[in-house]
């Protein structure tokens, strides 16, 4: 029987795109399956030159190594017109760490007979995204797994543990095989509102005495971003709103529910209403009943939370429940001093109708650009300059800073550290311990030799 091993099918020297395959004899389990933010994609596709998804969902991506050539993984429909023949499933389960697109965005390509394991919250988020974006994750035997509940897939046992991240219900995993254990962090942080969950995962991973730690390293290496906590973001927003007599605007990641709550509470504390998009209203409605303590505000349930209605020729069915009570640009112009308005870059054309007073604050509650040549960042500032808005950067990252990565490794003390989800895996060498820079498609054995010297 083939000894246990792990293979990296994505996430190697790139941000996102994690695809971790763990095998134990005939049993094969995959962790995460989404696109990366790899510069390799931009080497072949740009602007209107995009993969021919209407010809074949995978053919062009396979050509350039942007998807792994794994027999028995893809559906028959996904493989149409490609040179990879369809085979009965040879992967026996896919575990999704969280609902971000770079970890779940390719689920629709997977054979519909392969089970997909998620927790209840992540499933609700994926359904909310399907409802409001038209993004499809495919038909699968969806398996809802409670936190910390072991799941057996043949010889492999997977234990999901909740961790803190910039989207709720994120998980890390402790995976047990016949020859040893692997800890996989997924995407995580140790400075957010649920950092206690991350510490508990690290404790569980350490107790498993893992042969390998597969750890995300988004912020390893050069990183000029400020390391705000969520409380630090709130403090900054309070100061800005307290010094503002008119309309204030904010942009944040649309499914960062912690940030939504931060902005909502900050607005309330200053006697303002928080105005969200139709998509955010839909998201809050879909996940409200799962939120711990029922402390998630509902659109229509309070005047502190309003919904902004952009002018459209036709509204989708999921938008219609919010339209009657929604506010428009005329309302915002008339009541600006009473509002904090959420406005994403994709909807910046609303500024033409909103006409905020010059000097109005715009709070950018997202990551800073990775380079001075970031095109989206330049476009954003062109709009802000045109309307005379004042830019403020306030963001708590969903990923660990280097000191948090070091602490994780020192606490778990694995035999080998495998950095993924990073463009700078070499930065892990300074954290101590044995670091292996994984190679794409290479299999690494999972061993059982004692590692801690009796500690």
Count of distinct strands: 19
Q: Work out the count of structural domains.
A: 2
Low-confidence parts: 449-455
- Oligomer status: single chain
Strand order of the largest sheet: 6-5-4-3-2-1-19
**Percentage of residues in DSSP E strands:** 15-25%
How many helical elements? 12
What is the distance, rounded to the nearest whole angstrom, between the alpha carbons of the first and last residues? 32 Å
CATH architecture of the largest domain: 4-Layer Sandwich
Per CATH, the superfamily of the largest domain is Ribonuclease Z/Hydroxyacylglutathione hydrolase-like
CATH class of the largest domain equals Alpha Beta
* Alpha-beta content class: alpha/beta
Radius of gyration: 23 Å
Mean pLDDT: 92
SSE topology sketch:
Elements (H helix, E strand, L loop, with lengths): L4 E6 L8 E6 L2 E5 L7 H4 L16 H5 L30 E2 L5 H4 L11 E3 L1 H14 L8 E3 L6 E3 L2 E7 L8 E6 L4 E4 L10 H13 L4 E5 L13 H13 L5 E5 L4 H13 L3 E4 L1 H10 L17 E3 L21 H6 L4 E4 L8 H4 L6 E5 L9 H13 L2 E4 L8 H11 L3 E5 L22 E3 L10
Parallel strand pairs: 3-4, 4-5, 5-6, 10-11, 11-18, 12-15, 12-16, 13-14, 13-15, 16-17
Antiparallel strand pairs: 1-2, 1-19, 2-3, 7-8, 8-9, 9-10
Helix pairs in contact: 4-8, 6-7
Model description:
The protein is α/β, with parallel strands linked by helices and 455 residues long. It folds into two domains: 5-222 and 399-445, 4-Layer Sandwich (Metallo-beta-lactamase, Chain A), CATH 3.60.15; 230-393, Metallo-hydrolase/oxidoreductase (Rossmann fold, 3-Layer(aba) Sandwich). The chain is built from twelve helices and 19 strands. The protein has helices at 39-42, 59-63, 101-104, 120-133, 195-207, 230-242, 257-269, 278-287, 329-334, 351-354, 375-387, 402-412; strands at residues 5-10, 19-24, 27-31, 94-95, 116-118, 142-144, 151-153, 156-162, 171-176, 181-184, 212-216, 248-252, 273-276, 305-307, 339-342, 361-365, 390-393, 416-420, 443-445. A seven-stranded mixed beta sheet has the order 6-5-4-3-2-1-19. A hairpin with a 2-residue loop joins strand 7 and strand 8 (156-162). The longest helix is centred in the N-terminal third of the chain and has 14 residues, at 120-133. The chain is globular and about 70 Å long. Residues 449-455 have low confidence and may be disordered.
